[in-house]
Amino acid sequence: MNFQKLFLLCLLFVLQTLNLFSQRNLPQSEIPNPDPMKQMESFILDEGLEINLFASDPMMAKPIGMNWDDQGRLWVVSSRLYPHIKPGQRSDDQVIVLEDKNGDGVADKSSVFAENLLIPTGIMPGDGGVYVANSTEILFMEDLDGDLKEDKRTVVLSGFGTEDTHHIIHSFKGAPDGMMYFNQSIYIHSHVETPHGVRRLMAGGIWHYRPETGKLEVFSRGFVNSWGHIFDRYGQSFATDGAYGEGINYVFPGSVFFTAYNAKRILRGLNPGQPKQCGLEIINSSHFPDSWQGNLITNDFRGHRVNRFIISDSGSGFVSRQAKDLIRTNHKSFRPIDVKIGPDGALYIADWYNPIIQHGEVDFRDPRRDHVHGRIWRVTHKDRQLSKFPKLINAQTASVVEHLRSPDGVTRHFAKRQLRQRPRSEVVSELKRFVGRDDLDAEDKLEILWAHQAINHVNEDLLKGLLNSKDHRIRSAAVRVVYHWKDELNAPLSLVSGAINDDHPRVRLEAISTLRNIGTAQAFNLIMDAFDREIDSNIDFALWLAARELKSVWLPLLEEGKLKIKGRHKALQFILKASEEPEALKLLASSLSSTDLKGAGFRELSSLYADLGDSKDIDLLYASAFVEGREKEDRNHVFNELIRVFKDRSIQPTQKREQELLKLVRSGNEAGAMLSGTWKIEGVKAILIKWLNDDEKSILAVTALGEIGDVSSLKTLIKIIDDNETNVETKAHAITAIARSNLLQSAAYASELMSEAKTPKPVKTILEFFLTRKDGPNFLADAISGKKMNANVAGEAVRMTIASGGETKKLIQELSKAGSLQTVQAGLSDSEMRELMNLVKSEGSPQRGEDIYRRSQLLCQSCHAIAGAGGAIGPDLVSLGSSAPIDYIVDSLLEPAKKIKEGYHTTVVTTKQGEVITGGLVRDSDSELVLRMVDGSFKNIKTSVIEKKEISPVSLMPPGLTASLRKDEFIDLISFLSALGKEGEYKVPSGRQVRRWRVLPKDSRTSGLIKTKGIQFTLNGKNNLPWKPVYSYVDGGLPLAEMGINNGFNNRLSIAKFEIEVSVAGKIGIRLKNPKGLQLLTGGEMIEAKKNSSFTFSQGRQEIYVIVDTDVRESNLFIEIVDVDGSPGAAELVTGF
After folding, report:
1. Which of 11, 221, 585, 980 is the most buried (most CB within 10 A)?
2. pLDDT value, residue 362
3. Cβ neighbours of residue 982 under 8 Å, at least 6 residues apart?
4. Within a 10 A sphere around the Cβ of 1103, how many other Cβ atoms?
């Protein structure tokens, strides 16, 4: 590089930097020094690693994605336009090729291969050119004269959605099978014309594409914004999500994840509560230690970290454990977004370099957005030799094939890519010669099989041999090949008939997916064999998917008596339920009328009848409640389902069997009473009136009378409201009961009660009803107008009303007037914001701020999680401080609706019955919509009952939550939030610390049970104890003060519990930081706590109780679950609200 060129580039760099700092007169501390050497000084590396700068601006800028070619050159797509093109601006984004000519680990040549692109987001060299994702299309670019400049551009696929620039197709990945895989994200809807027909993917998912045939298919569906996908040594897939926090995800054909369009079921990630991660690579490089091989590397781009995860087998899938970070820093602009192993075996990291990363929730034109910088970092191991990358281009085909045995995954990958470009007959001949050698192991032969796939040539003999390998990983990979070769093989069913009964569950999982893909009647009969073996969550999902997709195949078999169901009653119920086919219900009628099926199985079946059945089926469902020997809980479930059927679909039995039902009600059956009220059975009124004098049944009684709604029932309700002896909570329910018949009259009564209320509880009851009724908020606002309310009660009412997300402006105004509430503080001016930011840095205390965050009246933990513990209505805050500037955090508290984070908008559903339901959208399918409610529960709404669905411009986070804080408290809260995720004590430590707890507050009934029956009886799960959710501090500690002291045993016991989800039965370790004063109880077994204990757990959700002797213990509670050496047991903590 000559001196003059170097001088001009440096001058350009300085001018760009000065321009960046001068924008809006922002303090320099808000925009880090962009000198790469200064940035590198801030890096904290894992032991044994070192880092150097491979390439930086102005050699290239804003790298979005990268991939190597078979000549050891790094191809990068770069976009200075992101996040959007401005009016009149030229689309001049680029493809850049970086070369390290002298092999010193630093790029010394940069070539602009292509220009005039619009936010390119994916790139993969190969097949004599390079594939590039360019907005709605995939381009294939060719250099015809060897000058490393694009000469020919061909659109190979088009029709991909472009609704959101950071969700468009991206993350191009060459696979062992020779295909190209790539991702798209949640807000994209693609309709792509191919030679094989139109292929569609609505919302997120992963595609695979074979260029030589033009065949494009969907591999997996879901994710919010998945920017990472990788294959392990045996072809198994893993993915990360840059906008959803479950860490590493195990992906297999047909798998479905969070936000998938029209999904009825989804799979979960392997690391719930993890930060969001971008990019993914697997260590398959001789340059790194043996203990690292197979580890996954990904980027916590919000937290300025590069993470490492250790993956190991668990049933049909895997478990993932986070190891020590490769890189961590507090440099605000370090944004690692892509990661690749290079031809030298080193790890290369694309650094987007930007102090601003948010997309939709941050102003596109925020002057702090960086459009000029970017880096590629290179990480090596100090004590190990670099890998040697062979010259493949002009090598003999025999030499290229030999490289399929390389210990380095990069070399094996490019050997297969190179073979794709050579004459097929020559490659087939060489592979045939090579596979006959005596020194090949199963892994070598798998590479040869994949080489056949890469050139699209079937080798059935080689495939058969690998299907019988001793290694389950090889057998699984071979079954996946059958999945893709099903149309080319002579008898694909015979090849996988043994796999469906394989001893290893992953082989069976692959077999189910392959048989589903084959899709014949014989294939489904083979799938039925899987029900005879252990079924874990992945296999359960795969069986469910097969039953749904192939119902047109197996239903006729079932009707003809040709389906293999003998002795498989549970399997039959499973596939019938999965199919959601009304015609299938008649085949289950005998099960419904028998008491042999009980508990969860019966309740699932009765719900299926309620969901799908016609009037005759509902008759059978109702009759099942009266079968002699029917358990009470099962009968009540039937009654509740019949209520739902009547309200959703206006269907009721032809014979109501009133006398039998009333007999049950007289004996105290509350579910029967509500059903009688819903069906307006006259005879139940006398029973309900008697129940009005029973404190435990009075609320149910007034609710049921409201359902009847005739003149006499309404008079009874009014009498209750007017009676001064009636307790206020019963009055509130009586008022809402009247509202079912006369909303206007009910509003008048409601306003009187609200003006007299001294506590929020009865007002909450009223609001919960009125806010969920069309016109309810306006009627109530009119009734409240001119009245006075207790200020605290009015404040709680305002917060609840705003959080409802509906059209409530008028009601909020009247509640504020009634309570003489101050107007919520609006946004700050620029000068006020700068002053506040300075105070946060100079005077704010994150330690005090964390305690403020935990105050129940602020509702922070009800809506937000930290590392998965807490509500899910709002975003997880685990890395908020490292991803969001302070001013945006302040704005989000003062004006929540100003910028709503993608995926957290409020959905408002109005039903045909006039009910208004508000929550966060979880899934939206053709048959039902699922909302996450403010309390963390899920609400399933049948699409048949929906009148209107809309996205509210109002945030579920109400403004004014922080209005009660003093200025110094507000500053402390911001200080805490802005510290989350940064290096230090407010970065969540790795490991599986218990963060979500349930504790027992002081309660006389619980105390009495403990005193008379003992702890083990009290905590047996059947006593309906008043558990309260609490959450650990960021450091993982649960303060004793928040556990509550139960007055059993001389007021000295505190009791908490946590839950784990056991995916594979076996021993699970429990590690205590300090066991003093603790006992553990699980499965009815009490064990004295030690620093390291282990329990044997069966598969499924398990509870562990912690009993604390507060006379002995003073310190916070820290518990971590760990793996036990030699045990197959695998478990994850249950997170969420």
Report:
1. 980
2. 65
3. 303, 304, 330, 881, 882
4. 15
Instruction: State the architecture of 397-578 in CATH terms.
Output: Alpha Horseshoe (1.25)
Side chain identity at 163, as an amino acid letter?
A: E
CATH code of domain 992-1133: 2.60.40
In 10 A of CB 532, how many CB atoms? 13
Q: Look up residue 156 and give its two tokens.
A: 């190979």
How distant, in Å, are the alpha carbons of 712, 736, 755, 790, 793 from that of 747?
A: 20, 9, 12, 18, 17
* DSSP letter (8 states) at residue 992: E
Handedness of CA 42, 44, 50, 54 (dihedral sign): negative
Same fold, 397-578 and 830-979: no
Helix (H) or strand (E) holding 45: strand 44-45
CB-side neighbour CA atoms (13 Å) of 987:
17
pLDDT at 414: 97
First to last CA, the chain: 58
Res 4: pLDDT: 43
Among all chains, which residue has been given the structure tokens 């990630």? 269
In whole angstroms, how large is the CA radius of gyration of the chain?
A: 32
CATH number of 830-979: 2.30.30.100
pLDDT digits (tens, 9 = 90+) for 223-258: 999 999 999 999 999 999 988 878 999 999 999 998
Close Cβ partners of 807 (under 8 Å, ≥ 6 residues apart): 777
Instruction: Give me the phi and psi of 43, to 5 degrees please.
Output: -75, 135
Q: Cα separation of 821 and 813, whole Å?
A: 10
673-697 exposure pattern, b = at least 16 Cβ within 10 A, e = fewer = bbbbbbbebeebbebbeebbeeeeb
For residue 675, the 8-state DSSP code is: H
User: Cβ(449)–Cβ(463) under 8 Å?
Assistant: yes
Report in angstroms the alpha-carbon separations of 376 from 327, 360, 873.
Answer: 14, 26, 36
Q: What is the mean pLDDT of residues 773-786?
A: 92
Q: Write down the domain spans for the chain.
A: 41-381, 397-578, 830-979, 992-1133
Q: Let me know how long the chain is.
A: 1137
Per the DSSP assignment, residues forming a β-bridge with 1100 are: 1062
Q: Which top CATH class is 41-381?
A: mainly beta
Q: Give the CA distances from residue 724 to residues 136, 454, 548, 721, 729, in Å, rounded to whole numbers and listed in that order.
A: 68, 82, 58, 8, 12
Distance CA 400, CA 397 (A): 5
Of the pLDDT bands very low, low, confident and very high (cuts 50, 70, 90), residue 1048 is low
789 CA to centre of own chain? 42
Tens-digit pLDDT profile for residues 911-945? 887 788 877 777 777 778 888 776 667 788 888 88
CA 592 to CA 603: how far, in whole Å? 10
Instruction: Provide the whole-model pTM.
Output: 0.85
Q: What's the pLDDT score for residue 358?
A: 64
The CA distance from 977 to 876, in Å, is: 12
Mean pLDDT of 813-839: 81
Q: Give the DSSP per-residue string, 581-638.
A: -GGGGGGGHHHHT-SSS-THHHHHHHHHHHHH--HHHHHHHHHHTTSTT--HHHHHHH
Q: Which of 740, 920, 166, 252 is nearest to 540 (CA)?
A: 252
For 456-469, the pLDDT digits (tens) are: 999 999 999 999 99
For the ranges 210-214, 361-365, 591-595, 649-653, the maximum mean pLDDT occurs at 210-214
Count Cβ atoms within 10 A of the Cβ of residue 561 and give its class: 0-12 exposed, 13-18 middle, 19 or more buried: exposed
Say if residues 254 and 220 touch (Cβ distance below 8 Å).
yes
Amino acid at 589: A
